TrEMBL record:
CDD domains: HTH_ARSR. Keywords: DNA-binding, Transcription, Transcription regulation. GO terms for molecular function: sequence-specific DNA binding. The keyword Transcription applies. It comes from Mesorhizobium atlanticum. Residues 4-57 form the HTH asnC-type domain. This is Lrp/AsnC family transcriptional regulator. PANTHER family: LEUCINE-RESPONSIVE REGULATORY PROTEIN, TRANSCRIPTIONAL REGULATOR AZLB. Signal peptide: none annotated. Pfam families: AsnC_trans_reg, HTH_24. GO terms for cellular component: cytosol. InterPro entries: ArsR-like_HTH, AsnC-type_HTH_dom, Dimeric_a/b-barrel, Tscrpt_reg_AsnC-like, Tscrpt_reg_AsnC/Lrp_C, Tscrpt_reg_HTH_AsnC-type_CS, WH-like_DNA-bd_sf, WH_DNA-bd_sf. The keyword Transcription regulation applies.
Length: 145
């Protein structure tokens, strides 16, 4: 696929915030016909730029445990681990980084037991060489909201 152009970038920006937006509304917002917008979305999906759609559930109560999983992969790149991570609702953010580590995975779970289960499921995959867990004690500065 060609590099995403300005319209593709606009579509991606909208879909990243509103994955369930009706195609008709998406097309109107980017100034395309419904069929043109549909074709662009289909091309982005086929090219792997759009890997899936998900519901991003906000924090429902205060008893949420946040943690960072520091992952070293057996081999890079490893798209299979990204696909696996995307399947967990508790995974909030995955960042590929430079240096000794390969991925920083930010998770939010309701309990330590769920954190342990999630951690074990990820660590036992063949793509993962090592995994370290850091539990967030508090957020001193949070500009995400």
């Amino acid at each position: 696929m060609k590099q995403p152009d300005a319209k593709d970038q606009e579509i991606l920006a909208i879909l990243s915030k509103e994955a369930r937006i009706p195609l008709k509304a998406l097309a109107a917002r980017v100034g395309l016909s419904r069929s043109a917008a549909s074709e662009r979305v289909a091309q982005l999906e086929r090219a792997g730029v759009i890997r899936g759609y998900r519901a991003d559930i906000g924090q429902m109560d205060r008893d949420v445990i946040r943690a960072f999983l520091l992952v070293t992969l057996a081999r890079t790149p490893s798209m299979s681990i990204l696909d696996k991570l995307a399947g967990y609702a508790e995974v909030r953010r995955v960042s590929s980084i430079s240096g000794q580590l390969d991925l920083v995975v930010e998770v939010e779970v309701p309990s330590i037991d769920r954190l342990n289960n999630l951690r074990d499921n990820i660590a036992n995959g063949p793509a993962v060489q090592d995994l370290t867990t850091l539990i967030v004690l508090r957020r001193d500065i949070d500009r995400e909201q």
